[in-house]
Amino acid sequence: MHNKTIAELAQGLRNKDFSSEELTRHYLDRIERLDGNYNSFITVTGEQAIAQAKAADERLSIGDQPILCGVPIAHKDIFCTDGVRTSCGSKMLDNFVPPYNAAIVDNYLAAGAVTLGKVNMDEFAMGSSNETSYYGAVKNPWNTNCVPGGSSGGSAAAVAAHLAAASTASDTGGSIRQPASLCGLTGLKPTYGRVSRWGMIAYASSLDQAGPITRTAEDAAIMLNTMASFDKRDSTCVDESIPDYTATLGDSLKGLRIGVPKEYFSEGLNADTAARVQDAIKEFEKQGATIKEISLPHTQLAVPAYYVIAPAECSANLSRFDGVRYGYRCENPADLQDLYKRSRSEAFGEEVQRRIMVGAYALSAGYYDAYYRKAQQVRRLVKQDFVDAFEDVDVIMGPTATAPAFEFGAMAGDSVAMYLEDIYTIAINLAGLPGLSIPCGLVDNKPVGLQLIGNYFSEAKLLNAAHQFQQITDHHQQSAPAID
Amino acid sequence: MEWETVIGLEVHVQLATKTKIFSGASTAFGAEPNTQACAIDLAMPGTLPVVNEEAYRLAVMFGLGIDAEISKRSFFERKNYFYPDLPKGYQTTQLDSPIVGRGHVDIPLANGGTKTIRIHHAHLEEDAGKSVHEGFIGMSGIDLNRAGTPLIEIVSEPDISNAEEAVAFAKKLHGIVTSLGICDGEMSQGSMRFDVNVSVRRPGEELGTRTETKNLNSFRFMTECIELEVERQIDLIEDGGKVLQETRLYNGDTKVARSMRSKEEANDYRYFPCPDLLPVEIDDEYIEAVRAAMDLLPVEIDDEYIEAVRAAMPEIPATRKARFVNDLGLSEYDADILSSDAAQSAFFEQAAKVSGDAKLSANWVMGDVNACLNNDEITIKDAPINADLLGGLILRIKDNTISNKIAKQVFEAMWAGEGDADTVIEAKGLKQVSDTGALEAMVDDVLNANAAMVEEYINTEEAKRKKKLGGFMGPIMKASKGQANPKVVNEILLKKLNQRL
Question: Does A370 touch chain B (CB under 8 A)?
């Protein structure tokens, strides 16, 4: 059962090959037996999952239900879950139980999906290796000496280890696509504003966007159908019609214009990864697409701009964690200043503290123009690169990450090297565009990903292209070697 | 040595919206602590703000009320600092693009003239909660009911020269916001709070270093605080010291001011545009809907909107003042004072309607009514007598039932809740005595008891005798317990004295 896609599970449930309760118990059993190897879950909600599964079975016995009804999934621990601890991977929120659901959690509940639990992540989504979690690093199912990528490392590892049919994730600078790439999965970051941010704990508000990590493009389409909704509670959510993303998966790619940015194949890219990505792009040519080299001239500026804007926003977003109303509070504070300083110093990890400090510095008097304002100007240039490119092409393709998964500690003490890990994904967040990573082969027995970047609200086109690719290739069907 | 005082005001006005500026929680005053703070107000993780459009409408009304420029594009920024009553660790406010731009307010001067005070801008922002220090040992409590209440902060230019002008300006603003109905004006509940920036200089010199005293919530405290601060600064400089730029607090109960923090200790607020309310600018024409998400999401207001707000606006004090002068014949000065506050205006107009005498009604409202209100420290809304009752009293003055002097006595009784004018007059036997028989006897008694004065009257030249009449009036009024009709007394007195010539 655990080898099936969502589409296959949904069919199995309707054929009565198995019940949701059986399926859910099976996944819970796998988590219990196997997750010690990966550390992908922070919280497993077994009892609640079985109750949800029974309710889903009831619904399925009545008649037509949403396709996700009875399908077990996992939520990244950045999404608030009513009555279930939501830690955001931090000691700060180790004791935090929200009294409300994130918008997308509600959407999946309404669809009848079963929640197996909350999956691990870099602390407050800050990291590209899942090494910054208070709950310990997540291991890559393809090679447990290697990182799964981050910040949605738990989301990716859980799906790669077949501990959940799919998972929710979030992407601020590559946090869905890079772990999907490193774990051989399909990961979609939708257009900024496509999915409500309500109840998703903010890292950098103007960049954060929720999306799914799945095994196939078809599953990603199914997941997005439920995840996307217009929500008045999020002022940045866009009231744009939501198509059925599964309806156009079968469309022909004849005439699809693909742009390949030359800047994405520069010296920082691992040669074998580059070869897999180039091979994959050629597959599209076979299906009638045309390939064209393009230029995104400000690519190199995206990472430095991001590491001003994201820390600046996070320095304010994380101010609410002050030990006053909820979350961690230090023992016996001497006075108010002591309460603030020790609560935050004791409960935030090193990377979170680093970004808060960087952000506060970039916003401070005398530096604002040199850093924050300059970064916003760069952001507009980066976006304009894409706007210009989409005059001539429908989809941009290139690598998701510079190389396959690296070993734990490989970048310890070198923040800049870690930050450059996201060089191909960050610009897409700065521009607010949708991006999709799909597996396109192995290097050193570890997966590498092909990234598809689309114009605003062109998720259907990205999923269509990815699905067609997956019809003539089998990279997405490869499982990590240790997985039965 | 001559000194000049320069004052600027920052006025926080709580807007009378039903719900908060970024959440659906109620803004009503006086509820149990933390019962009117929702997950957004508590800054729970993952919650997001949504702008209350009503707050915008009220701010636009204020802008129109002071002839100000209205920004057609404005956005919110985050002002970062840590304090327990500030749940998010930042205040959502406006810096670079306030909703209300330059405007002005004219204030009446004691010499009958007017002075224009320029408004630099007014911006929208959220109020903070409150720290509660009573009832906790070694800790403070936090009440977040007020957190997120919409405010406009009105910033004046330093055009104010003394405490009287500052108070006149504050009262004028109070009148404008209460007349527009955009604020309840309840200063004791914190609905309107004043920060005063004060500096002194010798005439012709550059501006001196200023201090800011925060959070004054009564006109009296403002007067006291300004006078104290001006004196402190002058003493300091004359003793060879220097005024330090600092934020100060004034305690209205102890009449003591103290420094809160110096400029060096001031926060760097690290303002930046709030990404939850306004995403980044987009300048392409691809997808209209993305623009809303990617642009700086300005709140766009067109002229039609501005005109619609203008049409629906209640009467502003300036319009009302003109009506009082032109239609009711009040002096500029009286009209200015009476028109400034909506409740007071309504009270006056009703009293004038009932009594049919605008001038007399104006005198009573500005005089005795205000004196009693100040004494009781209440506003006219809570006055123990209504305008109809005051009008009834004035009617009794006009029909000579009572004199002005007795009327004050009746008014006091009415204020104390002893009933309407007629009831009080009847109960206390204060009806003016016009019965000539009784008065003639009284006058005779007084003349007989004051033979020397009568003698003097007779010996005075005829042209100057009239002046001597007043001397008899006192004893007669005393004898009548003030109830004699002075006009009738005068006639009888003249007749009786002339008989003795």
Answer: no
- The shortest CB-CB distance from B142 to any of A319, A324, A456 is to A324
**B138-158 tens-digit pLDDT:** 888 999 999 999 999 999 999
pLDDT (tens digit per residue) in B365-386: 999 999 999 888 888 888 899 9
User: Contact A153/A120 with Cβ under 8 angstroms?
Assistant: yes
Helix (H, G, I), strand (E, B) or coil at B5: strand
Residues 66-85, chain B, touching A (beta carbon < 8 A): 78, 80, 82, 84
Q: Does A372 touch chain B (CB under 8 A)?
A: yes
Q: Which of the following CATH numbers is that of domain A6-256+457-477: 3.30.565.10, 3.90.1300.10, 2.60.370.10, 2.40.100.10?
A: 3.90.1300.10
Q: What is the pLDDT of residue B298?
A: 38
- Which residues of A form the catalytic set? 76, 151, 175
Report the mean per-residue pLDDT for chain B.
87
Range of the domain at B52: 4-273
C-alpha distances in angstroms, B66 versus B12, B70, B476? 16, 11, 55
Q: CA–CA distance from B286 to each of A207, A259, A386, B289, B291 (Å)?
A: 20, 18, 12, 9, 9
pLDDT confidence bin for B1, thresholds 50/70/90: low
What are B105-134's pLDDT values in tens digits?
999 888 888 999 999 999 999 999 999 888
pLDDT tens, B54-81? 888 888 888 888 888 888 788 899 999 9
**Residue A117 predicted with pLDDT over 80:** yes
Same domain? For B369 and B483 the reply is no
Is B347 within 8 Å of B380 (Cβ atoms)?
A: yes
Distance from C-alpha of A450 to C-alpha of A442, rounded to nearest angstrom: 11
How crowded is residue B172: how many other Cβ atoms within 10 Å of its Cβ? 21
Q: Which amino acid is at B456?
A: E
- Residue B306 is assigned to a structural domain of this protein: no
One domain, residues B174 and B262: yes
Query: What percentage of chain B carries pLDDT values higher than 70?
Result: 94
Residue B65 domain-assigned (yes or no)? yes
> Is A390 near chain B, with CB under 8 Å?
yes
List B residues 143-162 in contact with A (Cβ-Cβ < 8 A): none
How far B41 CA sits from the closest chain A CA (Å)?
11
Q: For residue A54, what pLDDT is reported?
A: 95
Residue B238 domain-assigned (yes or no): yes
pLDDT at B268 over 50: yes
- Hunting for tokens 């960087």 — which residue is that? A358
Backbone angles phi, psi at B40, to 5 degrees: -70, -45
For residue B285, pLDDT beyond 80: no
* Number of C-beta neighbours around residue A412 at 10 A: 11
End-to-end, the C-alpha distance of chain B in Å comes to: 63
Q: Among all residues of chain A, which has the CA nearest to that of B285?
A: A387
Q: Which residues in chain B (87-106) have CB-CB distances under 8 A to chain A?
A: 87-90
Q: How many domains does the structure of chain B reveal?
A: 3
Interface test with A, best of B290, B291, B296 (most A CBs within 10 A): B290
Q: Can you tell me the ipTM of this complex?
A: 0.95
Q: How is residue B433 annotated by DSSP?
A: B
Which conformational region is residue A255 in: left (phi greater than 0), alpha (psi within -120 to 50 degrees), or beta?
left
Is B294 within 8 Å of A432 when comparing Cβ atoms?
A: yes
Which spans in A318-364 are helix H? 336-347, 350-363
**CB A235 to CB B268 under 8 A?**
no
